Amino acid sequence: MRRTTAFAASLLLLATALSTVGGPVAAADPTDPVTVTVNTRAGLATVPATALGVNHAIWDSQLGSAETSDLLKAAGVKMLRYPGGSYADIYHWETHTAPGGYVAPNTDFDTFMAGARRVGAEPMIIANYGTGTPAEAAAWVRYANVTKGYGAKWWTVGNENYGNGHYGSAWEADDHPDKSASQYARLVVEYADAMKAVDPSIKVGAVLTMPGNWPDGITAGSDPGPWNQTVLSIAGPKIDFVDVHWYPGGSPADSLARTNHLPDAAWLLRQQIARYAGPGADRIGISFTELNVDAGRTTAPGALFLADAYSGLLEQGVFTVQWWNVHNGIGTVSEVAGQTDYGDFGLLSSGNCTSDGEVCQPAFNTPFAPYHALSMMNLFVRPGDQLVRAGTDQPLVAAHAVRRPDGSVAVLLLNKDPDNAYPVALDYAGFTPADEAPTVHTFTNGATAISTSRSGDATARTLPPYSLTTLVLRPAGSSAGRPGAPGRPTASAVTDRAATISWPAATPGGSPIAKYEVHRQYGAVSEQLGETAGTSLTVGNLEPGARYTVNVLARDTAGRVSWSSPPLTFATGSPAESSCAVRFDDDNDWGNGYVANVEVINTGAKAVDGWTLTWTWPTAWQQVSSGWSATWDQQGRDVRVTPTADNRRLAADGGSTTVGFVGAYSGPNVPVGAFRLNGTVCTLR
């Protein structure tokens, strides 16, 4: 459940971030065709059965009603979360009470499960951490899966528990005297042990925070590090997934631009899991169980954000994305792009009015724009589809794509411009569409339903302002006889300049497999790194400190090419030996900025008289705000540091100097991978 204090904390951090970083992008000439590239050779994650989700809440008396359940089923909902955000930390399932909160009739657990079964959705249940116990959670598992046989698989320990006051802002109930991240993690272990003693088959999740969002990066009290590091270090061996929320805040243009943060946020989450969660950490999945916007919640901005964020997160391998929520109630009423926005977090109207009775919502269960966006997602992605790379050359037009098992391709196009239509020209790599009119699904600003037709062709379309469009395209030829896709690649022997990529062999189709090709994803374009007849390839000429996403394709003796393998993302390091080294220390972090000390070390045999240190930020929203002990300059993402008169000389064999700066970020704070001293790549210590 979203509360004002949570928003206030997030908005405070956003307001103090640099306004020039990651802000809305001005529209280009809308008469110029936008180039959309769909690259089916650049495979991303496969769509899971639990992909499309939404939250239910115990203050909603229609939680289990046939009408509400049927609307959710029609929108393709496959996972339902219960009992409702922050209410989970005051809710006692056995007595069906939530002291301090409102519990509507007909919202008990059995009613919820009946509704979930009618929807055809798996439940995700939040065990009460704030005012509950491991024994209470274990009893709930026993009732659900032993007594009733519901087979409820997914259980999270608590909700937004970092909001218990440990970092200064408090909205989440927490009766524990020790409110630290360490204590939360220790109790997650107790919860997991107690719950799995009842049913070892369940999956238990722990709450993490979104990279780049409060309180990410902040260390409080005696914790060994920030929330995510602390929780993963202690509870990592016991959990099966992590649970993350994201409310990007800001204006409609702000929230729609910030979906660009998702690849870096997912990368950082996986890096944190791999680093801190212990052996076998790759088993830990990622769920995003609350998303919404701050402006335009019931109108086109909310719809566009839902479709863009769901698609972006599923591309990164998240196993479920869940909107907040089904019914929530009227909020601050405004006008957005000519439409009345009711400030309601719900997908469906609650049918209520403002306190003064001046404005009332439409009839109960009337779908809002985000509901139609969720329905569009159900037309776009299906379980088993493989998401593939798609991109555009216009920031206000976004594209996503999937390749289906039958060989067809679906393309989702979003126009985030409230005022202008954009013509688009579509180009396909690794796919030839049939010479016929595609199936076209369209949702426009102010519409009350998705329109469907067969019209136009596969290569050109005009996108109305603030609209969602899905094209479903059949292939020109048959895919019979092509080899199967290679298995998921792995990387080993990764250095600053090379890596060995290995993969499980593909299954031959109509002809023997002749070779495998390793392709790097470079935006929506693929760049071949090499090929081999075997199932392993060492690739060289890589850039130090860079991130690479690669796929493997199989090609048979008849020239037929497989689907791409699942993606592999890895990062090169710094050189093991160099004539320089850099130690970068940014432990003093307050959530959207930090103080960093940078030690520059001459490890060469000759003294350095005059030096220039350079690096490139991984993202556009990272910046040097001010610095000392050197002259600091940033142009775009490139940083240049030069010495003062008293530290220009670095003695041979270890001579060093330390300089510092205040850094700022308004998105995931991705670490710098490579520093250069006078053009030489340094070892990163």
Automatic annotation (TrEMBL):
<dbReference type="InterPro" id="IPR013780">
    <property type="entry name" value="Glyco_hydro_b"/>
</dbReference>
<dbReference type="InterPro" id="IPR013783">
    <property type="entry name" value="Ig-like_fold"/>
</dbReference>
<keyword id="KW-0326">Glycosidase</keyword>
<feature type="signal peptide">
    <location>
        <begin position="1"/>
        <end position="27"/>
    </location>
</feature>
<dbReference type="InterPro" id="IPR012291">
    <property type="entry name" value="CBM2_carb-bd_dom_sf"/>
</dbReference>
<dbReference type="InterPro" id="IPR036116">
    <property type="entry name" value="FN3_sf"/>
</dbReference>
<dbReference type="InterPro" id="IPR001919">
    <property type="entry name" value="CBD2"/>
</dbReference>
<dbReference type="InterPro" id="IPR008965">
    <property type="entry name" value="CBM2/CBM3_carb-bd_dom_sf"/>
</dbReference>
<keyword id="KW-0378">Hydrolase</keyword>
<keyword id="KW-0732">Signal</keyword>
<dbReference type="Pfam" id="PF00041">
    <property type="entry name" value="fn3"/>
</dbReference>
<dbReference type="InterPro" id="IPR017853">
    <property type="entry name" value="GH"/>
</dbReference>
<feature type="domain" description="Fibronectin type-III">
    <location>
        <begin position="485"/>
        <end position="575"/>
    </location>
</feature>
<feature type="domain" description="CBM2">
    <location>
        <begin position="573"/>
        <end position="685"/>
    </location>
</feature>
<keyword id="KW-0119">Carbohydrate metabolism</keyword>
<dbReference type="Pfam" id="PF00553">
    <property type="entry name" value="CBM_2"/>
</dbReference>
<protein>
    <submittedName>
        <fullName>Alpha-L-arabinofuranosidase</fullName>
    </submittedName>
</protein>
<dbReference type="InterPro" id="IPR003961">
    <property type="entry name" value="FN3_dom"/>
</dbReference>
<keyword id="KW-0624">Polysaccharide degradation</keyword>
